Amino acid sequence: TDENLPTRRECGTMQVHRRLLDTDPNYARRLARIEEQAFRAREGLMVLRPGCTRIPVVVHVVWKTPAQNISQAQIDSQIEVLNRDFRKRNADVSSVPGVFAGVAADARLEFRLADRDPAGNAHSGVVRVQTTRDNFGGDDAVKRASSGGSDAWPRDEYLNIWVCQLSGGLLGYAQFPGGPADTDGVVITHTGFGTTGTAAAPFNLGRTTTHEIGHWLNLRHIWGDDGAGCSGSDFVDDTPNQGGSNGGKPSFPTISCNNGPNGDMFMNYMDYVDDDTMVMFTEGQVTRMHACLDGPRSAIG
Question: Is 36 a catalytic residue?
Protein backbone atom coordinates (compact mmCIF):
# COMPACT_ATOMS: atom_id res chain seq x y z
CA THR A 1 0.00 0.00 0.00
CA ASP A 2 1.05 3.59 -0.59
CA GLU A 3 1.60 4.29 3.12
CA ASN A 4 4.27 1.58 3.19
CA LEU A 5 6.29 3.01 0.31
CA PRO A 6 9.64 4.57 1.29
CA THR A 7 9.66 8.36 1.07
CA ARG A 8 13.32 8.92 2.01
CA ARG A 9 16.32 6.86 0.98
CA GLU A 10 17.38 4.35 3.61
CA CYS A 11 20.38 2.10 2.87
CA GLY A 12 21.31 -0.71 5.27
CA THR A 13 24.86 -1.29 4.04
CA MET A 14 26.66 0.25 7.00
CA GLN A 15 24.53 -1.74 9.43
CA VAL A 16 25.60 -4.93 7.65
CA HIS A 17 29.20 -3.71 7.73
CA ARG A 18 29.08 -3.08 11.50
CA ARG A 19 27.41 -6.44 12.13
CA LEU A 20 30.17 -8.24 10.26
CA LEU A 21 32.82 -6.32 12.21
CA ASP A 22 31.16 -7.55 15.42
CA THR A 23 30.62 -11.16 14.37
CA ASP A 24 33.44 -12.10 11.96
CA PRO A 25 36.96 -11.65 13.41
CA ASN A 26 38.55 -12.06 9.97
CA TYR A 27 36.37 -9.45 8.25
CA ALA A 28 38.40 -6.49 9.53
CA ARG A 29 41.66 -8.12 8.40
CA ARG A 30 40.27 -8.75 4.92
CA LEU A 31 39.05 -5.15 4.74
CA ALA A 32 42.48 -3.88 5.72
CA ARG A 33 44.07 -5.72 2.78
CA ILE A 34 41.36 -4.44 0.43
CA GLU A 35 41.87 -0.86 1.63
CA GLU A 36 45.63 -1.16 1.16
CA GLN A 37 45.06 -1.97 -2.50
CA ALA A 38 42.50 0.84 -2.81
CA PHE A 39 45.03 3.26 -1.32
CA ARG A 40 47.69 2.18 -3.83
CA ALA A 41 45.25 2.79 -6.67
CA ARG A 42 44.29 6.18 -5.21
CA GLU A 43 47.97 7.15 -5.11
CA GLY A 44 48.53 6.02 -8.70
CA LEU A 45 50.79 3.14 -7.65
CA MET A 46 49.01 0.45 -9.65
CA VAL A 47 47.83 0.08 -13.23
CA LEU A 48 44.08 -0.48 -13.41
CA ARG A 49 42.39 -2.74 -15.94
CA PRO A 50 41.72 -1.21 -19.37
CA GLY A 51 38.50 -1.42 -21.34
CA CYS A 52 35.13 -2.51 -19.99
CA THR A 53 34.30 -5.30 -17.56
CA ARG A 54 31.10 -7.23 -18.20
CA ILE A 55 29.52 -8.63 -15.04
CA PRO A 56 27.04 -11.56 -15.16
CA VAL A 57 23.99 -10.91 -12.97
CA VAL A 58 21.53 -13.29 -11.35
CA VAL A 59 18.32 -11.73 -10.04
CA HIS A 60 16.60 -13.65 -7.24
CA VAL A 61 12.94 -12.60 -7.14
CA VAL A 62 11.61 -13.62 -3.73
CA TRP A 63 7.88 -13.00 -3.61
CA LYS A 64 4.73 -13.63 -1.59
CA THR A 65 2.13 -11.55 -3.45
CA PRO A 66 1.73 -11.50 -7.25
CA ALA A 67 2.86 -7.85 -7.33
CA GLN A 68 6.16 -8.80 -5.70
CA ASN A 69 6.78 -11.38 -8.43
CA ILE A 70 8.04 -8.62 -10.71
CA SER A 71 7.95 -8.92 -14.47
CA GLN A 72 10.82 -9.63 -16.82
CA ALA A 73 10.25 -6.16 -18.24
CA GLN A 74 10.91 -4.61 -14.81
CA ILE A 75 14.10 -6.65 -14.46
CA ASP A 76 15.24 -5.69 -17.96
CA SER A 77 14.58 -2.02 -17.21
CA GLN A 78 16.94 -2.20 -14.24
CA ILE A 79 19.74 -3.78 -16.29
CA GLU A 80 19.31 -0.99 -18.84
CA VAL A 81 19.65 1.64 -16.10
CA LEU A 82 22.85 0.05 -14.80
CA ASN A 83 24.37 0.01 -18.26
CA ARG A 84 23.62 3.68 -18.74
CA ASP A 85 24.67 4.81 -15.26
CA PHE A 86 27.97 2.89 -15.10
CA ARG A 87 28.93 3.97 -18.64
CA LYS A 88 28.00 7.65 -18.11
CA ARG A 89 25.38 7.27 -20.83
CA ASN A 90 22.48 8.48 -18.68
CA ALA A 91 20.87 11.54 -20.27
CA ASP A 92 20.51 13.31 -16.92
CA VAL A 93 24.29 13.49 -16.40
CA SER A 94 23.88 16.76 -18.29
CA SER A 95 22.38 18.23 -15.10
CA VAL A 96 25.74 18.00 -13.26
CA PRO A 97 26.85 21.55 -12.35
CA GLY A 98 29.76 22.75 -14.45
CA VAL A 99 32.13 22.84 -11.46
CA PHE A 100 31.72 19.06 -11.05
CA ALA A 101 31.25 18.04 -14.69
CA GLY A 102 34.98 17.60 -15.24
CA VAL A 103 35.22 14.71 -12.76
CA ALA A 104 32.01 12.90 -13.82
CA ALA A 105 33.28 9.56 -15.08
CA ASP A 106 32.53 6.45 -17.12
CA ALA A 107 33.00 3.48 -14.77
CA ARG A 108 33.55 1.13 -17.75
CA LEU A 109 31.23 -1.54 -16.35
CA GLU A 110 28.51 -3.43 -18.19
CA PHE A 111 25.91 -5.78 -16.74
CA ARG A 112 24.17 -8.73 -18.39
CA LEU A 113 21.75 -11.29 -17.04
CA ALA A 114 23.60 -14.59 -16.76
CA ASP A 115 22.97 -17.04 -19.59
CA ARG A 116 24.38 -20.06 -17.71
CA ASP A 117 23.73 -21.37 -14.23
CA PRO A 118 26.57 -22.56 -11.96
CA ALA A 119 26.35 -26.05 -13.49
CA GLY A 120 26.81 -24.64 -16.99
CA ASN A 121 23.21 -25.13 -18.10
CA ALA A 122 21.41 -22.50 -20.17
CA HIS A 123 19.53 -20.10 -17.88
CA SER A 124 17.59 -16.83 -17.99
CA GLY A 125 19.56 -15.27 -15.13
CA VAL A 126 16.35 -14.92 -13.08
CA VAL A 127 15.47 -17.18 -10.13
CA ARG A 128 11.92 -16.94 -8.77
CA VAL A 129 11.18 -18.18 -5.26
CA GLN A 130 7.78 -18.00 -3.58
CA THR A 131 8.06 -17.31 0.15
CA THR A 132 5.67 -17.39 3.10
CA ARG A 133 7.30 -14.32 4.63
CA ASP A 134 5.53 -10.96 4.49
CA ASN A 135 8.83 -9.08 4.26
CA PHE A 136 12.56 -9.16 4.94
CA GLY A 137 14.96 -6.90 6.83
CA GLY A 138 18.69 -6.29 6.69
CA ASP A 139 19.65 -9.59 8.36
CA ASP A 140 20.35 -11.52 5.11
CA ALA A 141 17.42 -13.92 5.57
CA VAL A 142 16.40 -13.29 1.94
CA LYS A 143 19.74 -14.78 0.87
CA ARG A 144 19.03 -18.24 2.30
CA ALA A 145 16.44 -20.79 1.20
CA SER A 146 16.35 -22.05 4.79
CA SER A 147 14.91 -18.72 5.98
CA GLY A 148 12.42 -18.19 3.17
CA GLY A 149 14.77 -16.68 0.61
CA SER A 150 17.01 -17.87 -2.22
CA ASP A 151 20.57 -19.19 -1.96
CA ALA A 152 23.35 -17.16 -3.57
CA TRP A 153 25.04 -18.27 -6.75
CA PRO A 154 28.88 -18.32 -6.58
CA ARG A 155 30.12 -14.76 -6.08
CA ASP A 156 33.28 -15.36 -8.12
CA GLU A 157 31.07 -15.82 -11.19
CA TYR A 158 27.95 -13.72 -10.58
CA LEU A 159 26.64 -10.54 -9.03
CA ASN A 160 23.69 -11.71 -6.92
CA ILE A 161 20.77 -9.27 -6.70
CA TRP A 162 17.84 -10.19 -4.46
CA VAL A 163 14.54 -8.37 -5.07
CA CYS A 164 11.89 -8.71 -2.38
CA GLN A 165 9.63 -6.79 -0.02
CA LEU A 166 11.85 -5.03 2.51
CA SER A 167 10.45 -3.72 5.78
CA GLY A 168 10.88 -0.54 7.79
CA GLY A 169 11.32 1.82 4.84
CA LEU A 170 14.54 0.09 3.78
CA LEU A 171 15.24 0.57 0.07
CA GLY A 172 18.23 -1.72 -0.19
CA TYR A 173 21.58 -2.82 1.16
CA ALA A 174 24.81 -4.35 -0.03
CA GLN A 175 27.74 -6.29 1.35
CA PHE A 176 31.17 -4.75 0.94
CA PRO A 177 33.91 -6.94 -0.55
CA GLY A 178 35.52 -9.03 2.16
CA GLY A 179 32.29 -10.41 3.60
CA PRO A 180 31.04 -14.02 3.55
CA ALA A 181 30.60 -15.70 0.18
CA ASP A 182 27.12 -17.06 0.87
CA THR A 183 25.65 -13.59 1.50
CA ASP A 184 27.57 -11.63 -1.13
CA GLY A 185 25.55 -9.29 -3.32
CA VAL A 186 22.87 -6.60 -3.05
CA VAL A 187 19.24 -6.57 -1.90
CA ILE A 188 16.62 -4.16 -3.29
CA THR A 189 12.98 -3.68 -2.33
CA HIS A 190 10.79 -4.40 -5.35
CA THR A 191 9.28 -0.88 -5.38
CA GLY A 192 12.79 0.57 -5.79
CA PHE A 193 13.89 -1.77 -8.57
CA GLY A 194 13.83 -0.81 -12.24
CA THR A 195 11.65 1.82 -13.89
CA THR A 196 8.35 0.07 -14.53
CA GLY A 197 5.95 -2.38 -12.87
CA THR A 198 5.94 -1.87 -9.10
CA ALA A 199 8.69 0.79 -9.13
CA ALA A 200 7.32 3.79 -7.22
CA ALA A 201 8.37 7.44 -7.11
CA PRO A 202 10.63 8.98 -5.96
CA PHE A 203 12.68 5.77 -6.28
CA ASN A 204 11.44 4.59 -9.67
CA LEU A 205 14.45 5.24 -11.90
CA GLY A 206 16.59 2.27 -10.84
CA ARG A 207 19.14 4.33 -8.94
CA THR A 208 18.84 2.34 -5.69
CA THR A 209 20.50 -0.59 -7.45
CA THR A 210 23.17 1.71 -8.91
CA HIS A 211 23.87 2.98 -5.36
CA GLU A 212 24.04 -0.49 -3.82
CA ILE A 213 26.28 -1.90 -6.56
CA GLY A 214 28.56 1.05 -5.80
CA HIS A 215 28.84 -0.35 -2.26
CA TRP A 216 29.38 -3.87 -3.63
CA LEU A 217 32.38 -2.40 -5.47
CA ASN A 218 33.68 -0.83 -2.24
CA LEU A 219 32.32 2.71 -2.55
CA ARG A 220 31.31 4.38 0.70
CA HIS A 221 28.60 6.97 1.23
CA ILE A 222 29.83 10.31 -0.03
CA TRP A 223 29.61 11.97 3.41
CA GLY A 224 31.84 9.38 5.10
CA ASP A 225 29.24 7.92 7.50
CA ASP A 226 30.11 10.07 10.50
CA GLY A 227 26.60 11.35 11.03
CA ALA A 228 26.42 15.08 10.37
CA GLY A 229 30.08 15.69 11.23
CA CYS A 230 32.88 16.80 8.95
CA SER A 231 35.57 14.28 9.93
CA GLY A 232 34.35 11.21 8.00
CA SER A 233 35.77 10.18 4.63
CA ASP A 234 34.67 8.15 1.64
CA PHE A 235 38.39 7.66 0.79
CA VAL A 236 37.94 9.47 -2.54
CA ASP A 237 39.79 12.72 -3.25
CA ASP A 238 37.47 14.34 -5.82
CA THR A 239 34.27 14.21 -3.74
CA PRO A 240 33.93 17.27 -1.48
CA ASN A 241 33.88 16.81 2.29
CA GLN A 242 30.21 16.77 3.28
CA GLY A 243 28.31 17.09 6.55
CA GLY A 244 25.83 14.22 6.49
CA SER A 245 23.51 12.87 3.83
CA ASN A 246 21.27 14.87 1.52
CA GLY A 247 17.73 13.72 0.74
CA GLY A 248 15.06 14.70 -1.73
CA LYS A 249 16.04 17.25 -4.40
CA PRO A 250 18.53 19.78 -3.01
CA SER A 251 19.36 22.96 -4.86
CA PHE A 252 22.88 23.84 -5.99
CA PRO A 253 24.92 24.88 -4.15
CA THR A 254 24.18 23.09 -0.87
CA ILE A 255 27.01 24.04 1.47
CA SER A 256 28.30 22.11 4.49
CA CYS A 257 31.66 21.55 6.19
CA ASN A 258 32.97 24.88 4.86
CA ASN A 259 32.93 23.40 1.36
CA GLY A 260 31.70 26.55 -0.41
CA PRO A 261 31.33 27.99 -2.93
CA ASN A 262 30.41 24.76 -4.72
CA GLY A 263 29.16 22.79 -1.71
CA ASP A 264 28.10 19.14 -1.58
CA MET A 265 28.22 16.83 -4.59
CA PHE A 266 24.67 15.76 -3.74
CA MET A 267 24.04 14.60 -7.30
CA ASN A 268 26.48 11.71 -6.74
CA TYR A 269 25.06 8.19 -6.79
CA MET A 270 26.46 7.60 -3.30
CA ASP A 271 24.38 10.29 -1.57
CA TYR A 272 20.77 9.77 -0.38
CA VAL A 273 18.89 12.04 -2.81
CA ASP A 274 15.91 10.97 -4.93
CA ASP A 275 16.48 8.84 -8.02
CA ASP A 276 16.02 11.77 -10.41
CA THR A 277 18.71 13.78 -8.60
CA MET A 278 21.61 11.28 -8.39
CA VAL A 279 23.35 11.18 -11.76
CA MET A 280 27.14 10.64 -11.52
CA PHE A 281 30.21 8.80 -10.29
CA THR A 282 33.58 10.57 -10.13
CA GLU A 283 36.99 9.64 -11.53
CA GLY A 284 38.15 8.87 -7.99
CA GLN A 285 35.20 6.59 -7.35
CA VAL A 286 35.90 4.75 -10.61
CA THR A 287 39.51 4.24 -9.52
CA ARG A 288 38.27 2.78 -6.24
CA MET A 289 35.78 0.47 -8.00
CA HIS A 290 38.46 -0.79 -10.37
CA ALA A 291 40.85 -1.41 -7.48
CA CYS A 292 38.10 -3.65 -6.09
CA LEU A 293 37.74 -5.41 -9.45
CA ASP A 294 41.51 -5.96 -9.59
CA GLY A 295 41.56 -7.19 -5.98
CA PRO A 296 38.79 -8.95 -4.05
CA ARG A 297 36.48 -9.23 -7.09
CA SER A 298 39.12 -10.08 -9.66
CA ALA A 299 37.50 -13.44 -10.52
CA ILE A 300 34.26 -11.95 -11.81
CA GLY A 301 33.58 -10.42 -15.20
Answer: no
Own/partner pairs for 1-8, CB < 8 Å, 24+ apart? 5/191, 5/200, 6/169, 6/170, 6/171, 6/189, 6/191, 6/192, 6/203, 7/169, 7/202, 8/169, 8/247, 8/248, 8/272
Per-residue pLDDT tens for 157-186?
999 999 999 999 999 999 999 999 999 999
Q: Pick from 208, 186, 198, 189: which is nearest to 276 by CA? A: 208
Which of 142, 126, 122 minimizes the C-alpha distance to 79? Answer: 126
Report the distance separating Cα 45 and Cα 206, nearest Å.
34
Residues of the chain above pLDDT 70, percent: 99
pTM check: above 0.85: yes
- What pLDDT score was predicted for residue 4? 76
> How high is the pLDDT of residue 113?
98
Close Cβ partners of 27 (under 8 Å, ≥ 6 residues apart): 20, 21, 178, 179
SS3 60: strand
- Out of 10, 110, 157, 212, the active site residue is 212
Choose among 240, 247, 243: nearest CA to 211. 247
Q: Is pLDDT above 70 for 3?
A: no
Residue 250: pLDDT over 70: yes
* Element containing residue 109 per DSSP (H, E): strand 109-113
